[in-house]
Amino acid sequence: MQDISGHAPWRKYAQLVRKVTGALASKPHWRAPQVLTLQSQFLPVSHSGTLSVRDPEGELPTWALLAAPRWANAARPEELTAQASCGPFKNKPRPSPPPDRYGADKMAAGGAVAAAPECRLLPYALHKWSSFSSTYLPENILVDKPNDQSSRWSSESNYPPQYLILKLERPAIVQNITFGKYEKTHVCNLKKFKVFGGMNEENMTELLSSGLKNDYNKETFTLKHKIDEQMFPCRFIKIVPLLSWGPSFNFSIWYVELSGIDDPDVVQPCLNWYSKYREQEAIRLCLKHFRQHNYTEAFESLQKKTKIALEHPMLTDLHDKLVLKGDFDACEELIEKAVNDGLFNQYISQQEYKPRWSQIIPKSTKGDGEDNRPGMRGGHQMVIDVQTETVYLFGGWDGTQDLADFWAYSVKENQWTCISRDTEKENGPSARSCHKMCIDIQRRQIYTLGRYLDSSVRNSKSLKSDFYRYDIDTNTWMLLSEDTAADGGPKLVFDHQMCMDSEKHMIYTFGGRILTCNGSVDDSRASEPQFSGLFAFNCQCQTWKLLREDSCNAGPEDIQSRIGHCMLFHSKNRCLYVFGGQRSKTYLNDFFSYDVDSDHVDIISDGTKKDSGMVPMTGFTQRATIDPELNEIHVLSGLSKDKEKREENVRNSFWIYDIVRNSWSCVYKNDQAAKDNPSKSLQEEEPCPRFAHQLVYDELHKVHYLFGGNPGKSCSPKMRLDDFWSLKLCRPSKDYLLRHCKYLIRKHRFEEKAQMDPLSALKYLQNDLYITVDHSDPEETKEFQLLASALFKSGSDFTALGFSDVDHTYAQRTQLFDTLVNFFPDSMTPPKGNLVDLITL
């Protein structure tokens, strides 16, 4: 490290800093913002560099080093630079959590900080409790004694409400809560609980709803601590047990630890913001109430006094045109502008998908009498070239034998083409099933690895793991390896997974059962099954690398190998996602990601905290796809958790995992009653439940393709399918929402006309309103047909729900306005609640 204190410019700058900081330090309430004002007088460091200065008069403050002006920096040797960027706070090392967690918040409050404060343990005391039994006092949760069975709080009963209220030493941003446990499993552990928080015990917000595993490990949960990306403080934390692991047992909590930020310089601005936020929302609720009830003078007076806007000006304009003036044509124009400006996009993204299955009937071609489409099969493989919209299918099991035929389906031409009846005769892979394929779309190449072999044909030669590549443009196969195990890759496996990273020209393969000579895989006397680990294949160098061995420990960085799982590669965040599968007799329901660049494993879900119906059922035959653009993973689940592939266990359900929101949603589950009583019409609407099928996804055109599989018919165990389906996941389009909004506006306009001029209203119904109706929707069509009854109603037949103090027309227009507002982003709309809902009885 070099001493630059001898440089005249730097010495002059250091003297100036000491002079100013000495004056500031003499002030009793000196704070960082004053220092920041000083920093703004200097230009930031002009070149990259971390500087450590050994100055004879003592080390300078960090801010002074970072804010050094150009004239002071000019004399620094270039070799001293190492870490800076272009701002006075960019250089300083930042501990977790990330700076944006509060930096912008405090800036908005009028101050600023140089680095994120450290998340630390928050002291608290027991404030209130619902009950306790015997010696299991609430204070016991303050001490972590996992080996002492009496060191816990236990409720006197399990009848709600049971709770503990903790009072923090001072207001803090509570980010995490940790629960300690007894050293053994215990029936009184909390299977379900909720955590609430707030500045007072009478008004709390739900911060967490979750449950504990019934084991001895501590568990830490992240609490909600932001509103609109702004942190808010709490003084009280309320823990509400809902269900214990023993259904009839009382609730027990052994130890509780809170962590977060209690630095007053951080918390106070957040507290100020939170107070202003609550006051502002209260005023906005009043404004909404006044306008709904047409208290014009009160509304205008409050808004003028507070200068708080109820909503976005566009919505104020919509209210003026619709509710006050009844200018319905102008309302339609405003809605059309909002749709074209993309203001309905947020609403669309929040809507659930609706599946639309279509059975594909390919064109027939004249040939030499042979089949012009793939036959019945299961255990086959498919990949799709999204650029040319071509699906490739290879191999499989038809119920009696393995297949070696190779097919291509053109989506544009709706036609199958047989590339090869037997790829082995063309220097390609032999007949096989339970293998895997992946496609390199950039280089137009297909790779295939692995297969299943019956125990009767296994020997040292047949158990070699061959590895092939098919070149689409030249229509040729190439044997890359006769035995990947000999080249440092996986042994011969089946039911594994394989993914392609086209950007880095890498292939990743994970899991699968390793085939051995010692007996059938179904032989209970066979040795313990072996599973393959995680391997990477460099297509450029044609070399293998073992990234993770199979691990039974399942530690933070360990992964358990399995068969029948899903593995997908996200090309944008460069992670592998692995879900489900089976290991020996255990069905796995964990979900984790693996960063291929950093070699890091992130456990998304360990499979133990799921609520029934909230995640896909554990199974062996999930088929999954990924959409990197939408950050979604799609899972078609077949076989249920029941451990036999019996017909009654084979059910279809389609799930979507939102990577950004970390949430699952079920798009559909097939109707079991319809399955038990199948009809031709139902079978034409969607594919029957199955397993051993294949599913591929065209991420450009947002279409799935499904082919074949095993329907699980116990009466026909050799039966396989050859049906071909497409699946589109549909959300309301912009055009649909625009039409629907126009329908709502014109429907209301018709009802107003019907009260004043029935003949004019009838003409309006038959023409203007008719063209906005979706006549393919039975419900909307029926509603439209019933509208004619409004022509025969008197004015007294119309009632205004919830607005007894305003006239009918104003109330009905207000309700229509509230309906239309729901399509706009939350940031533009009035508050969702109503003032009268705050009144408790």
Automatic annotation (TrEMBL):
<dbReference type="Pfam" id="PF01344">
    <property type="entry name" value="Kelch_1"/>
</dbReference>
<dbReference type="InterPro" id="IPR006652">
    <property type="entry name" value="Kelch_1"/>
</dbReference>
<dbReference type="Pfam" id="PF06588">
    <property type="entry name" value="Muskelin_N"/>
</dbReference>
<keyword id="KW-0677">Repeat</keyword>
<dbReference type="GO" id="GO:0001726">
    <property type="term" value="C:ruffle"/>
</dbReference>
<keyword id="KW-0966">Cell projection</keyword>
<dbReference type="GO" id="GO:0098794">
    <property type="term" value="C:postsynapse"/>
</dbReference>
<keyword id="KW-0007">Acetylation</keyword>
<feature type="region of interest" description="Disordered">
    <location>
        <begin position="82"/>
        <end position="102"/>
    </location>
</feature>
<protein>
    <recommendedName>
        <fullName>Muskelin</fullName>
    </recommendedName>
</protein>
<keyword id="KW-0770">Synapse</keyword>
<dbReference type="InterPro" id="IPR008979">
    <property type="entry name" value="Galactose-bd-like_sf"/>
</dbReference>
<keyword id="KW-0880">Kelch repeat</keyword>
<dbReference type="InterPro" id="IPR010565">
    <property type="entry name" value="Muskelin_N"/>
</dbReference>
<dbReference type="GO" id="GO:0042802">
    <property type="term" value="F:identical protein binding"/>
</dbReference>
<dbReference type="InterPro" id="IPR006594">
    <property type="entry name" value="LisH"/>
</dbReference>
<keyword id="KW-0963">Cytoplasm</keyword>
<feature type="domain" description="CTLH">
    <location>
        <begin position="312"/>
        <end position="364"/>
    </location>
</feature>
<dbReference type="InterPro" id="IPR006595">
    <property type="entry name" value="CTLH_C"/>
</dbReference>
<dbReference type="Pfam" id="PF24981">
    <property type="entry name" value="Beta-prop_ATRN-LZTR1"/>
</dbReference>
<comment type="function">
    <text>Component of the CTLH E3 ubiquitin-protein ligase complex that selectively accepts ubiquitin from UBE2H and mediates ubiquitination and subsequent proteasomal degradation of the transcription factor HBP1. Required for internalization of the GABA receptor GABRA1 from the cell membrane via endosomes and subsequent GABRA1 degradation. Acts as a mediator of cell spreading and cytoskeletal responses to the extracellular matrix component THBS1.</text>
</comment>
<dbReference type="GO" id="GO:0005938">
    <property type="term" value="C:cell cortex"/>
</dbReference>
<dbReference type="InterPro" id="IPR056737">
    <property type="entry name" value="Beta-prop_ATRN-MKLN-like"/>
</dbReference>
<dbReference type="InterPro" id="IPR015915">
    <property type="entry name" value="Kelch-typ_b-propeller"/>
</dbReference>
<dbReference type="InterPro" id="IPR052456">
    <property type="entry name" value="CTLH_complex_component"/>
</dbReference>
<comment type="subunit">
    <text>Homodimer; may form higher oligomers. Identified in the CTLH complex that contains GID4, RANBP9 and/or RANBP10, MKLN1, MAEA, RMND5A (or alternatively its paralog RMND5B), GID8, ARMC8, WDR26 and YPEL5. Within this complex, MAEA, RMND5A (or alternatively its paralog RMND5B), GID8, WDR26, and RANBP9 and/or RANBP10 form the catalytic core, while GID4, MKLN1, ARMC8 and YPEL5 have ancillary roles. Interacts with RANBP9. Part of a complex consisting of RANBP9, MKLN1 and GID8. Interacts with GABRA1. Interacts with the C-terminal tail of PTGER3.</text>
</comment>
